[in-house]
Structure formats: structure tokens, C-alpha cells
Write a structure and sequence with these properties.
Layout (H helix, E strand, L loop, with lengths): L2 H25 L9 E10 L7 E11 L6 E3 L6 E4 L4 E5 L2 E5 L5 E2 L5 E2 L6 E2 L16 E2 L4 E4 L2 E5 L3 E3 L5 E3 L4 E4 L3 E3 L4 E4 L1 E3 L5 H37 L1
Antiparallel strand pairs: 1-2, 3-18, 4-17, 5-6, 5-9, 6-15, 7-8, 10-11, 11-12, 13-16, 14-15
Helix pairs in contact: 1-2
Length: 237
């Protein structure tokens, strides 16, 4: 295969990854706390032995949208939505993870947990505990969770440290590639949940663009294959 074919194949591979991301975004347009994902293409220049260097496209840099999702009032005492920057810190068997999906519940042992049973951590990184006999919890402006007039814990907001990035490890769970640090600018609202920040019409338009780009690349590969085939046939006559 000639250089043009290899370049087109690398582009096709990146477009397939982007199509998968767009499809995943559309599928999660109604998922609480979901953050839309995208893909950035980069240029990869390879030096060929005894030949000019070869420039290829690589779709290998996933990005996570930081746009605010819509806030929906639920009235639930353990429904929390983040307005602004930051993530809740969650304890998982694989380590600490970040999420914007603040629909929580109280476990049988009194821990504040996600819908998957993962414990929510407070501003100090400790599990949030709500006594079984506690009344309806309330949330203060500084994130302090209290019940029956006594403070229980302070919910914290976190983000990746400078130089670190987010990596999706589940539908609404993210892993930081480095340390996480507290966030002071975000605000936690009780009785609300944050919807997905996916813009369905934008994603559908992007899907059409990616599909057309992929079809154009496929057409080029087919044309190039036919050209090479005819050239070989003329040499063998």
C-alpha cells in the first residue's frame, strides 16, 4: 500500500473512534450527570528510511466537555447538583473517582452512597455517614450536611490538579491522571440533579459530518485500489 493509503487508513481509524463517542453521547443524552466526550485529531510525522517523512492523522486525544448541564428540581433530600466547577469524590474498589451525578442514597449502614452502592467522600476524603436515626438532612451554603441541628459532614468538590486530565472509566465516573485538589468556586444545590450536558441536535449533526468524512475516505481507498489494480494488470500483459 502506498503512503496515501496509509494516511487515509489512520484517518478512517480516528473517524471510527469519533463516531463511537458521538453515538455514546447520544445514548446518554438523558443520563444524570453525564459529560459529553469528544476526540481531538493530532498529526503524527514518521520518518521513513530513504524516503520523505510521512504525515498521518491520529484521533487519539479524548476530551471531556466541561459545560454545565441543566438543573432539574427533584426535592430529594439526597439529590445534589453542582453549579459551576467541580466533581464529587467517590470511593471505588479501583480507587477514588470523580462524578457529577449527585443522586445519592443512604446505605443500610448509614453511608451516603451512589446508586451503584459506592461511598461518597467528604471534603477531607472520608466517607459521609448519616446516622440511621437522623432526620431529613439539610445542606448549608458551605456544603455542610446536617440533621436534627447537628453537623454530619461537609461535602467537598474536587477537580484534577494542574497538568492532570480526566479519563472516563464508566458512564458518569472519571479518573484523574494525576492528583485531585479541592474546588472553591463550585456550589452544591440540595434537591436538584444535573442533567446530561449533551446537546442532541449538535451530536446528530456531528454524526452526519463524521459519516460523510468516513465515506469520502472509503471512496478514496476504493479509487486508489482500482488505480493500483489497473497498473498491475498493465505491467503483467
Amino acid at each position: 500500500m502506498e503512503a496515501a493509503g496509509y494516511v487515509t487508513l489512520t484517518r478512517q481509524s480516528g473517524l471510527m473512534r469519533e463516531m463511537q463517542m458521538v453515538a455514546n453521547n447520544i445514548a446518554n443524552a438523558a443520563t444524570t450527570g453525564y459529560r459529553a466526550g469528544g476526540l481531538v485529531f493530532s498529526e503524527y510525522v514518521a520518518r521513513a528510511e530513504g524516503a520523505p517523512s510521512l504525515s498521518m492523522a491520529r484521533g487519539n486525544a479524548p476530551v471531556i466537555s466541561a459545560a454545565q448541564g441543566p438543573l432539574e428540581a427533584t426535592g430529594g433530600a439526597l439529590d445534589f447538583a453542582i453549579e459551576g466547577e467541580g466533581f464529587f469524590l467517590i470511593e471505588t474498589p479501583e480507587g477514588e473517582r470523580l462524578t457529577r451525578a449527585g443522586v445519592f442514597a443512604r446505605s443500610a449502614t448509614g453511608d451516603l452512597v451512589t446508586m451503584d452502592g459506592l461511598r461518597v467522600l467528604d471534603a477531607g476524603g472520608a466517607p459521609v455517614f448519616i446516622p440511621p436515626d437522623a432526620g431529613r438532612p439539610g445542606l448549608a451554603a458551605d456544603g455542610t450536611l446536617s440533621a436534627d441541628g447537628r453537623p454530619l459532614a461537609q461535602l467537598g468538590l474536587f477537580r484534577p490538579a494542574e497538568g492532570a486530565a480526566l479519563r472516563r472509566v464508566g458512564g458518569t465516573l472519571f479518573e484523574s491522571t494525576g492528583a485531585v485538589v479541592p474546588v472553591a468556586g463550585g456550589r452544591i444545590l440540595q434537591g436538584f440533579r444535573e442533567g446530561s450536558n449533551v446537546a442532541p441536535m449538535t451530536e446528530i449533526a456531528r454524526m452526519i459530518e463524521v459519516q460523510r468524512a468516513y465515506e469520502l475516505g472509503q471512496s478514496f481507498l476504493e479509487t486508489e485500489d482500482e488505480r493500483v489494480r489497473r497498473a498491475l494488470e498493465s505491467f503483467t500483459r
